[in-house]
Amino acid sequence: MISVSEAIQLVEKQSLPLLKSTYKPVEKSGGYKLFADVDSPINMPPFRQSAMDGYALNLHNNLNYNLIGEVKAGDGHQLILKPGQAVRIFTGAPVPDTANAVMMQEKVVVDGNVITIQNQIEINVNIRPLGEQVKKGELALLKNTKLTPAAIGYLSSLGISKVKVFKKPSIALITTGNELVEAGADLDYGKIYESNSNMLLSALYSLKFYDVTIHKVEDDYEKTQSKLNSVINENDLVIITGGISVGDYDFVGKALSALNVTEHFYKVKQKPGKPLFYGTKNNTSIFALPGNPAAALTCFYVYVYIALQKMMNNDVVALPRIKAISVSNFKKNGDRPQFLKAIYNNNQVEILEGQSSAMQQTFAISNALVFMPEDDSAIETGDSVEVILLPI
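and the corresponding structure tokens:
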């Protein structure tokens, strides 16, 4: 059995970037990172553009100009201005090549077809030049840039409809247990509704990992080994819940060993989630989480989250950890470090009742975990504690 810090270090060390690429429509590329530099296919803006509503001028030495027309956004015609002539123009409209300044409308007096500007202005004022943001063929975004809404808007403005991005991992979720039935089915004596798959699927979706398949397997050694073999060969990440302890009907550990999965650790000195397995085979990472829902979700946030971020080659791989003031008392049983379900708000944290590894009701209202180290036996109101902020 290893410590929490040792387990985290092993996940960080053994989880490697996928370095696989795929093409995504720009509008569906949010959260991905660019696999290669993107060069601009156009000048942006693609024409000299008015920065405001006003009047485009062909400058001369007089404050009066003859108004000869109008240009609004989207117009494709090209008016020719002589010195001393002007056109009404609007924000984003193309500035005629023969105009060399735009005067804002608030500084113009209009009298029929003659306008008078308040003062002389410098050449090219209030005109966005051709290619001001980026010129055709220039670098628009660097490789490894994370595609935020702003980046997607920028790429779309350049007319780019698809991008080459780092592929996100394909993920298999496996639930084990003869006692599990799906929601909506009759709940016979001795059965419970299966919840881990929906819980973990939701956690993955919230992190924008959508390439996920769900598999269910009975407590049978041959079936467990067969299912694990197929999903390990077909996915980048495998997450198993249940069947990893040492009971007579826990077959996951035996099956992983038979499949020659390299074990990096099994059992972590922590509560909840002691019977946690992490291993790899070829380029696939495998986590076997405890079957108890709260323990499974805790292990997901503390360990699997890190593996996912490493696979995506992200710089920050762990959830944020901050210090906060406890508004609760808590006494720990035993000497294992503990992850406590909690509610964080405005630099204060409340440790909730119901810390059992099977308790989902408490986790349902939590937005944080309080980490209680091995050497701490109790938390008192007013103590400074370490808080892991959950991505919910």
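(Above: one complete record from the training split.) The CA atoms of residues 174 and 240 lie 5 Å apart.
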